């Protein structure tokens, strides 16, 4: 599994409805997103993306708004949203259980 392609100018929303735009793509080193309403930028590191991919490949699901040590991606909603965007082809949002789960990619 690899991360989905990110393009500068691509927009997406967090699970809470905040809109973000990809403002810089650094390839394997990650990318930067900016919250449209405030202009605040957050860097999504390639290391965090790779770590989340490895955890997803191991079958782990991810709690909303929780650090990795507590079974989530990040406590910071912007970082969580950026990772979920980068891994949108492999993660599914499960609002009923407040988790991101790995999509079944078996044909």
Please give the alpha-carbon distance between the first and last residues.
Answer: 15 Å
- What is the strand content? 25-35%
Quick check: average pLDDT? 91
Low-confidence stretches: none
> What are the secondary-structure elements, in order, as H or E?
EEEEHEHEE
Count of distinct strands: 7
Overall number of structural domains: 1
- Lateral strand order in the biggest sheet: 1-2-3-4
**Helix percentage:** 10-25%
> So what's the overall shape?
globular
Task: Please outline the major beta sheet.
Answer: 4 strands, antiparallel
Cα radius of gyration in angstroms = 13 Å
Structure description:
The chain is an alpha+beta fold. The chain has one domain (11-98). Helix content is 21%, strand content 29%. The protein has helices spanning 46-57, 77-86; strands at 11-13, 19-25, 30-35, 41-45, 62-63, 91-94, 99-102. The strands form two sheets. The protein has a four-stranded antiparallel beta sheet. It has a three-stranded antiparallel beta sheet with strand order 5-7-6, with no helix packed on it. A hairpin with a 4-residue loop joins strand 6 (91-94) and strand 7. The chain is globular, with a radius of gyration of 13 Å. The two termini are 15 Å apart. The mean pLDDT is 91.
